[in-house]
């Protein structure tokens, strides 16, 4: 079995799931009166697929945030560890340093790969959708279905378009075939630019607003700055070969990520970051209790203080009565 055949076998369950979710949304939208063969009905089905996947990933996203906070919390200890083994290049020293790093990660309940977890989980769904949509034209010509989608639905999807561009068409094949549809070219470029912009803005707002001063000064930050420009470029170049349906999926999931990060930065900012300082100012302006870098209150509300004082007074009174 070749590599592509092996990957295809691994992705088979994801292809079934992706096609089934699209089928379910398409049936639902058709039931409420949308045209079955409309490109907008199929577009909304793809958007529905994104919403289901991203909603299911919310627990993973929460875990990612906790892991990122843990990574930032251990930065001072990591610097001490790096200073301890600075200049030591022998194998025993490298092994000892690696073991101590793993112990630090374990004690803080985090690891350096946690930030990549949501996107790694999404990739099988992304590639599955890509393969499903890429096979639409061939399946339509042979009157075949694709997993949960019937042959009739595949024909509908193959002919479905928005703004004159079919959802199963892609930018590069159109150019290579020499009979390019200008609507496909223009819409693909717009979607690719939207995909790149949304991903760039999301990463930029994290780096400029939601990273502590220590994290900004760390060597890891230099790699993050490189990825800020490299990743959107990679997806932009790859996007010219994506069907419009896949571009809709990826742009929608990027918009979800951007909105999700905006919420986190505003409501749950990283301690020590510019967003955190702004958050503290807003709480102070509203007269709310402030919180420290561990997320604990630095000023208790009056009612909490009163309750605490009452609790402290109760015990001495009971002891005195017992003595009497």
From TrEMBL:
Chief location category: membrane
Name of the protein: Membrane protein insertase YidC
InterPro entries to which the protein is assigned, alphabetical: YidC/ALB3/OXA1/COX18 (IPR001708), YidC/Oxa/ALB_C (IPR028055), YidC_ALB_C (IPR047196)
Keyword Transcription regulation attached: no
Transmembrane feature ranges: 40-62, 182-201, 226-250
Lineage, uppermost ranks: Bacteria, Bacillati, Actinomycetota, Actinomycetes, Micrococcales
UniProt organism field: Psychromicrobium silvestre
Function comment: Required for the insertion and/or proper folding and/or complex formation of integral membrane proteins into the membrane. Involved in integration of membrane proteins that insert both dependently and independently of the Sec translocase complex, as well as at least some lipoproteins. Aids folding of multispanning membrane proteins.
Membrane topology (UniProt): Multi-pass membrane protein
């Amino acid at each position: 079995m070749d590599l592509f055949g092996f990957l295809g076998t691994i992705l088979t369950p994801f292809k079934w799931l992706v096609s089934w979710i699209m089928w379910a949304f398409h049936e639902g939208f058709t039931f409420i009166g949308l045209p079955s063969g409309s490109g907008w009905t199929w577009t909304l089905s793809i958007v529905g697929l994104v919403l289901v996947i991203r909603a299911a990933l919310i627990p993973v996203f929460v875990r990612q945030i906790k892991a990122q906070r843990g990574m930032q919390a251990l930065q001072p200890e990591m610097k001490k560890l790096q200073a301890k083994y600075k200049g030591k290049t022998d194998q025993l020293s490298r092994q000892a340093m690696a073991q101590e790093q793993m112990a630090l990660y374990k004690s803080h309940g985090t690891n350096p790969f946690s930030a990549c977890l949501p996107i790694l989980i999404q990739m099988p769904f992304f590639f599955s959708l890509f393969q499903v949509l890429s096979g639409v034209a061939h399946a339509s010509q042979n009157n075949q279905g694709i997993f949960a989608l019937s042959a009739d639905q595949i024909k509908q999807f193959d002919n479905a378009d928005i703004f004159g561009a079919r959802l199963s068409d892609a930018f590069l094949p159109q150019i290579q075939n020499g009979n390019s549809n200008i609507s496909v070219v223009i819409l693909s470029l717009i979607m690719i630019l939207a995909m790149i912009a949304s991903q760039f803005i999301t990463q930029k707002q994290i780096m400029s607003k939601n990273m502590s001063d220590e994290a900004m000064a760390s060597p890891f930050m230099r790699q993050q700055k490189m990825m800020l420009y490299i990743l959107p470029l990679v997806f932009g170049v790859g996007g010219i070969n994506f069907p419009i349906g896949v571009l809709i999926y990826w742009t929608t999931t990027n918009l979800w990520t951007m909105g999700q990060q905006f919420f986190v930065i505003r409501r749950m900012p990283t301690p020590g970051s510019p967003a955190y300082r702004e958050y503290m100012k807003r709480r102070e302006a509203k007269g709310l209790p402030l919180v420290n870098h561990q997320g604990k209150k630095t000023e208790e509300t009056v009612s909490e203080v009163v309750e605490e004082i009452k609790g402290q007074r109760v015990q001495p009174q009971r002891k005195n009565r017992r003595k009497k």
